[in-house]
Design goal:
CATH topology: minor pseudopilin epsh fold
Number of helices: 9
Strand content: 5-15%
Order of helices and strands: HHHHHHEEEHHH
Radius of gyration: 21 Å
CATH superfamily: Iron/manganese superoxide dismutase, C-terminal domain
Bound molecules: fe (ii) ion
Number of strands: 3
CATH architecture: 3-Layer(bab) Sandwich
Number of domains: 1
Mean pLDDT: 88
Oligomer: single chain
Largest sheet: 3 strands, antiparallel
Helix content: 40-55%
Shape: globular
Distance between the termini: 76 Å
Low-confidence stretches: 1-38
CATH class: Alpha Beta
Length: about 250
C-alpha cells in the first residue's frame, strides 16, 4: 500500500512540474520565456538595461503599453534565452560584438537572442522624449554626403523599414568602407553578423517587428516609421557615428 502511495505521489509531482514547464514556453526567439530567470545554474552575464526615460514619455509617437511590454517582456525574453544559450560555453567570456561577428559558428538560439538583446539595447538608446529634429555637425555632413540630403536619407530608411518582409529591422550603418549606408535585416539579425548580406556597424536601428507598433498603429507600419523620427536621439546617433569611425 505504501508503495502505491509513493508511486502516486511521485507521479503527481512530476505532473505538476511538467505543467509548470509548459507555462514557461521556451522559443528560439525568446518571445515568451519566463523560465530561465528561475533556473539557478543559468548564466547571468546579460541583464535588462534600465530605460533612461519613462515608458509613457515617448507618447504620442510610441505608446506606454507598447514600450512596457516591449522592454519588460520581449527584451527580457531575449536576455533570458541568450544567457541560457551561452551558459557554460566560452561565449560567456566573449564581447557580444565578437559573438555576433562570428554568429554563423554558433547556435540559432545565440543568433536570435544575442541579436535580440543587442538590437533592442541599441534601439532604446537612440530614442528620447527630447528627440526629433535633425542631426548636426559631422553626422549631418556625412548624411548629406552619402544621401544628398537628410530627407533622402529618411526616405531610404522609411523604404527599408516598410519593405522588410515580416519581422526585422531597418538600419543606418557605417559600412566596411567607412561610409554611411541604409540596410535592412530579417528577424533579429543585424549588420554586425557574418551572416548579414550588408555588413557594418549599426548607429541607428528601427524595430519593425509588429510588437514594436501593433497596439497603437495596427497594420500601419509606415505611420509608426513616420512617427519614429519625432523621438530619434540624434546626439546618441552622432556619438555612435564618431565611435564607429574611430
Ligand atoms: Fe522588438
Amino acid at each position: 500500500m505504501k508503495k502505491i502511495y509513493l508511486f502516486l505521489t511521485i507521479t503527481a509531482f512530476a505532473g505538476l512540474l511538467f505543467t509548470a514547464c509548459q507555462d514557461g514556453t521556451t522559443t528560439s526567439n525568446g518571445e515568451n520565456d519566463t523560465h530561465a530567470q528561475t533556473v539557478s545554474d543559468i548564466s547571468d552575464v546579460y541583464s535588462l538595461p534600465d530605460l533612461p526615460y519613462e515608458y509613457n514619455s515617448l507618447e504620442p509617437h510610441i505608446d506606454a503599453r507598447t514600450m512596457e511590454i516591449h522592454h519588460s517582456r520581449h527584451h527580457q525574453g531575449y536576455i533570458n534565452n541568450f544567457n541560457k544559450a551561452i551558459s557554460g560555453t566560452p561565449l560567456e567570456n566573449m564581447d557580444i560584438e565578437d559573438i555576433l561577428g562570428s554568429v554563423s559558428q554558433h547556435s540559432v538560439a545565440v543568433r536570435n537572442n544575442g541579436g535580440g538583446h543587442y538590437n533592442h539595447e541599441l534601439y532604446w538608446s537612440i530614442l528620447s522624449p527630447d528627440g526629433g529634429g535633425s542631426p548636426s555637425g559631422e553626422l549631418a555632413e556625412a548624411i548629406n554626403s552619402a544621401f544628398e540630403s537628410f530627407q533622402n536619407f529618411k526616405d531610404q530608411l522609411q523604404t527599408a523599414g516598410t519593405t522588410q518582409f515580416g519581422s526585422g529591422w531597418a538600419w543606418l550603418i557605417v559600412n566596411q568602407n567607412g561610409d554611411l549606408q541604409v540596410t535592412q535585416t530579417p528577424n533579429q539579425d543585424n549588420p554586425l553578423m557574418d551572416v548579414s548580406t550588408v555588413r557594418g556597424t549599426p548607429i541607428l536601428g528601427v524595430d519593425v517587428w509588429e510588437h514594436a507598433y501593433y497596439l497603437h498603429y495596427q497594420n500601419k507600419r509606415g505611420d509608426y516609421l513616420k512617427a519614429f523620427w519625432n523621438v530619434v536621439n540624434w546626439d546618441e546617433v552622432a556619438a555612435r557615428y564618431s565611435a564607429a569611425k574611430r
